[in-house]
């Protein structure tokens, strides 16, 4: 076990924010973390995620097209994802989903179509999906109620309502908690954390973004998972070690290709 016993279930170590010191950082993280899952956001970042996973035993990859990056998506993108999906260290399809926040994103119907195509691919390879849902809670919930079946999922950096969380928890989906859960004004996120069964809770950073307190405003990195997890232990009235062990077991149950 590493120093913390934690997994960061969602970090973008491929991001250019890590170009300066990626190797040194990863050497430190190998001491501190049990593992890291690095999702891709398009072909280029998925390719780097797979390379990092091949190079470092404790790093795993997910591959997919993020809803912000769908302009000009190649016609054969599913074939490329399918190739990667067969690699033993590719543990999920993601991050994929809906993003209605940025007006320049592709229209809702396009986003939904490409999201559902990637969900189908995940099913085909018996992989879970990593969900990005920004300002699209209603449509996302409806998709999971009506169209998405037979695939396991984690709602990364969950920002929906308690009502939505109840619907998702009822169906056994997982929830990723990161830096936002440590922010003073994030009462809703902590309510969801307290409500859901502990067996559905994962920790993450979304590095280099969404840095937890007390480093908010600085570059995030997977090592800061510890601050989110210590805060969560306090919120839930649990020992840190106990909660870390539960979250790690959850991460390995969801991403079942993790060895
Ligand atoms: Zn992300």
Automatic annotation (TrEMBL):
The entry's keywords: Hydrolase, Metal-binding
Binding site for a divalent metal cation 1: 10, 12, 95, 206
InterPro entries for the chain: Metal_Hydrolase, TatD-like, TatD/YcfH-like
GO cellular component: cytosol
Residues annotated for a divalent metal cation 2 binding in this entry: 132, 156
Keyword Metal-binding found: yes
GO molecular function: DNA nuclease activity; hydrolase activity, acting on ester bonds; metal ion binding
Pfam families named among the record's database cross-references: TatD_DNase (PF01026)
Stored PANTHER family: D-AMINOACYL-TRNA DEACYLASE
Protein name, as recorded: Hydrolase, TatD family
Organism encoding this protein: Phascolarctobacterium succinatutens YIT 12067
């Amino acid at each position: 076990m590493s120093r913390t016993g934690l997994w960061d279930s969602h970090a973008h170590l491929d991001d250019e924010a890590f170009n300066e010191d990626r190797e040194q950082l990863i050497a430190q993280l190998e001491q501190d973390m049990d593992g890291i899952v690095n999702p891709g956001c398009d072909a280029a970042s998925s390719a780097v995620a797979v390379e990092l996973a091949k190079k470092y035993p404790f790093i795993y990859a997910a591959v997919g097209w993020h809803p912000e990056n769908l302009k000009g998506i190649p016609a054969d993108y599913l074939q490329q994802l399918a190739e990667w999906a067969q690699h033993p260290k590719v543990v999920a399809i993601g991050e994929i989903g809906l993003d209605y926040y940025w007006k320049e994103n592709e229209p809702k119907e396009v986003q939904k179509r490409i999201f559902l195509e990637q969900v189908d691919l995940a099913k085909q390879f018996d992989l879970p999906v990593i969900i990005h849902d920004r300002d699209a809670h209603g449509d996302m919930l409806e998709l999971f109620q009506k169209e998405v079946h037979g695939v396991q999922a984690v709602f990364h950096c969950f920002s929906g309502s308690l009502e939505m969380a109840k619907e998702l928890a009822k169906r056994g989906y997982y929830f990723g908690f990161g830096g936002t859960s440590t922010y003073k004004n994030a009462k809703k996120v902590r309510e969801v954390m307290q409500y859901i069964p502990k067996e559905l809770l994962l920790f993450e950073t979304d590095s280099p973004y969404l840095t937890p307190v007390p480093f908010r405003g600085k570059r995030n990195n997977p090592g800061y998972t510890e601050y989110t997890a210590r805060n969560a232990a306090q919120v839930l009235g649990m020992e840190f070690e106990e909660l870390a062990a539960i979250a790690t077991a959850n991460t390995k149950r969801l991403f079942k290709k993790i060895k």
